[in-house]
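Box 3.1 — From sequence to structure: Methyltransferase family protein
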Amino acid sequence: MNKQSTQKLEMFLLGLQQRITENSSFFKKITLKFKSGTKMYEGTIILQDDRLLFQYNGRNDKMEISWLGARVSKIAQEYEAVSLVYEERGTTIFIDADNKNVKMKTKDTEIAEICRDHNETSQISNRDYYIKIGAANDLLKAIGILSENGKIKNDMIRKYNQIDHYIELVDDILKSLCSGYDSINVVDCGCGKSYLSFVLNYYIKDVLKKNCNFIGLDISKTVIDASKKIADCLDYRNMQFKVTDIRNYTADRDIHLAISLHACDTATDEAIALAVKNNAKAIVMVPCCQKEILNQYTFDRLKSITKYGVLKARLADVLTDGIRLMLLEAAGYKASVVEYVSPLETPKNLMIRAEKTGGVNKAAIEEYKSLKQELGIHPTLEKLILPYL
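Predicted structure (token representation):
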């Protein structure tokens, strides 16, 4: 190739160097084809121990990322043309160079038509999915929703709809975070097998095209090991998992989003407290069983109603989440609550969403204290976060 083309090729490769440096957790590989006459010579470049391993012409050479442009363009001088395919999660870049020109084009990961040729189409909601079958097949197989032949398992249809609806409910929050920060840090409190973290990871990086990092926390080594195994299978290198009690965790980086799914009773309060203490920019919690307030509250004006056990328990659930919302507002968050799934599927169907909008709201604190006194309650969440307000 002539000097003009190799110089232009090197300029494009400098851009790839920068991508690899900034997105090392998402870089997959570079495939090269050098053409000389009718012969084609292939090479690959992968990342290994923060350096590039260049496999070409029977050799395995390690080089610094900063050498990529100079090394490949120098080899290209010896050939008539070169084709290069750069792959990272969610994006593929093609570069074709010869003596006439050097062209580059980008092709995002293809999005397949929803449930195309799917045997269970009649059982899938007629909606435009956020986590699409086809593009997200590797993810959906790893978390057990798709079978190996690419079909949704019959007993996983409801779960698929639930995780997709979860993304729908947090989409605005995610896009707001993506517009405000270069990379999104997410902590999953009581992560279990972390399937929501895997889905969020895919959606933020592969669909929204934003860098992200995830930390999953759980007291169970068994589920942490299972999460690590799935992350390795998917090659999601931007995920960490720690065996720890969330009450003992202090973040070593900014938290942009804190999530928790079905953390039982006061474990949800511990997750909210972790988020507040670490000044998380957004919080999404789906609580589970609520016991604490049920065993504490009295409300004489409603004793004719709360004497019925099931009604007292349901009111306790409402009070528990209502108090959480009040305390989040006291901590400077704009909070809301929505139904995550239909109550016909599970009574544990509420999602608390909150976004940091300001400082401590003293009026909300006083309103909470008045309600607390009237109900005769001593919530765990108050003990965990009021000292920080």
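Summary of the box: The longest helix spans residues 157-180.
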